[in-house]
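Below is how a single chain appears once it has passed through the pipeline. First comes the sequence as given, then the structure the pipeline wrote out for it. We keep one example in the README because the format questions we get most often are answered faster by looking than by reading.
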Amino acid sequence: MGGTTFVSSSLAKYLISKGYEVDILTRGQKPASYTGYREHLRCHRQSKADMQHVLKGREYEVIFDISAYTKSDVEVLLSSVETKKLDKYVLCSSGSVYRPSDNPVSEVADRGENLNWGQYGLDKKEAEDYLFDLNRKNGFPVIIFRPTYIYGENNNLYRETYFFDRIKYNQIIPVPSGNDTRTQFIHIEDLIKVFESSISNKNIGSAYNVTNPEVVSWNKLVNSCAAAIGKKAFIKEIDSSKNIKARSYFPFRDVTYLLDISNLVRDGFYVPNINLKEGLAKAYKGYANELPRINDLGMNMIEHVLK
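Resulting structure:
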């Protein structure tokens, strides 16, 4: 589900390269930038009538659902596709389903309202709960992955590309002050290998945190981006007590975001191993080759905080 944006296209291309027979399903608003898939199915996944028409009679062994955000998204899909031969349904969820914590969070931690993520996290939680209920009732073969921040080549969000843009032209980068915030990242290559490992893994009915365990501060992140370019980063720390939201000048929320991946390791899934230095080197190589032109309209206070 998906196939033309960052995570879904990366996954589809990787599975095709490994010899899997792959269909992708998108709204059809833009073509896929690669070949090798069997079919590109086009419809709006929130339209039950359209989905039932497009998916009528189709059977799959594995469904990777990268584009589901709500319970309704999942319900419409599962009521439209034949599931008798389905061996795995893999949902890409998010670490945003957990309540706030300053410590690494395991899968048994409380899920629920987190003002840092808002409705997005609540919607993902509701979709998860629906799938867990299906698993309890009839053994529906679901696996749920909850990644932290995803980065890497072809990222459509203005994150590492923002840092590369400013470092390249020696522009000052405003960073939330204090540097007490700690977070984690996962490179896209690691994430898609985790997804692929679920195909042969026998564990179903559970959710798994997914990240590289390396703990990163904002200053470390920016300086690591600079190291990938071979330049120096010019950082200005912004006083967080000024009641200016970090997301108005910085591509991440200024909150600690740490996940424990012990269960992923224990249950035999692929374990992420690309550290930040290596991952950003890959990301910058892609940036230098593609020179992407993206932005984030919400980051409208950059010049204001620099003054």
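Residues 99 and 114 are 5 Å apart (CA to CA).

See the next section for the split statistics.
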